[in-house]
Design a protein that fits this description.
alpha/beta; 7-stranded mixed beta sheet; 9 strands; globular
Length: 283
């Protein structure tokens, strides 16, 4: 039987292993400890972020001790629908491949700026999924999953005990081809409208990340079409911001960001989120 401990008990037991990373107190602890977290108790004190898209949101960077440390107020919804400490890999789409993505760094930045709340990440990205799989009933054969339906189900579980504060999206590699690119902009807008409607999230920030720009693999015209749709989204829909991938590097496969770049991308997602907040406050 799995050992179930309270968050307070876990932190006390493992205090000897805590240390500072980036000014944030963290420590090596078992992921199971987060399941029985009791504080805070008010729904508004739990801020939720949905992580959606394909492999570069799921993360494929190599995991190190840095990525396995915990922040006591940063949790994630695991595959079984239980809250765990948020350590990489957050995702479970392809267990043998999942690694470091941008989500955890985003969560750490948000937690540092909002110490009064608990941040809860909802990992839903599926490597290799096209935007067609992000529609009701959409099926992804590589993982035998329904990315959109699963994301909605998981988000609704999380919303029972928290408030959705943002949706982070990175997807489009699988649509950068002659059969899909021309329809991508329309499909992306439909996705944003649909997920906001289903989650009652019309004013929730939506942050879209740019596809990788790797000199060893120049963009085709189809990838440029998908990129144009990403950049145009904040003109087409309200409460949207864009995170650039300029200067980020791949892990050697010309497709996936390495761990350092994935963490840097998480920082950029958070900066985009903050820019959007400033913009909305000024309106």
């Amino acid at each position: 039987m799995r050992n179930r401990l309270s968050l307070v008990g876990c932190i006390g037991f493992w205090a000897i292993q805590t240390f500072l990373i980036g000014g944030i107190l963290v420590g090596l602890v078992p992921r199971a400890c987060a399941q029985d977290s009791r504080a805070p108790t008010e729904r508004n004190d739990f801020h939720l972020f949905l992580l959606a898209g394909q492999s570069n949101m799921a993360g494929r960077g190599n995991v190190t001790d840095e990525d396995r440390t915990i922040h006591p107020k940063l949790l994630m919804l695991d595959q079984q629908g239980q809250w765990e400490f948020a350590v990489d890999p957050l995702h479970f789409d392809k267990p043998n491949a999942a690694g470091v993505g941008p989500g955890r760094t985003f969560g750490l930045r948000y937690a540092a700026d909002h110490p009064e709340v608990t941040v809860r990440l909802i990992p839903c990205a599926v490597g290799g999924s096209s935007i067609r799989a992000w529609k009701p009933g959409g099926y992804h054969d590589q993982t035998d999953s329904h990315p959109y339906d699963d994301a909605i189900r998981r988000a609704k579980v999380a919303l029972q005990s928290g408030v959705l504060k943002g949706i982070l999206w990175h997807q489009g590699e699988s649509d950068s081809n002659a059969n899909a690119a021309d329809q991508y902009a329309e499909n992306l807008c439909e996705f944003v409208d649909r997920i906001r409607m289903e989650l009652d999230a019309s004013d929730v920030p939506f942050i879209v990340g740019q596809l990788g720009q790797f000199p060893e693999r120049p963009w085709s015209s189809h990838r440029q079409t998908v990129d144009a749709a990403h950049q145009a989204l904040k003109r087409e829909r309200a409460v949207v911001e864009f995170a650039s991938s300029d200067g980020l590097v791949h892990k050697g496969d010309q497709t996936h960001f390495d761990a350092a770049s994935a963490r840097a991308f998480g920082e950029r997602y958070y900066e985009a989120f903050k820019r959007l907040g400033v913009k909305l406050a000024a309106e």
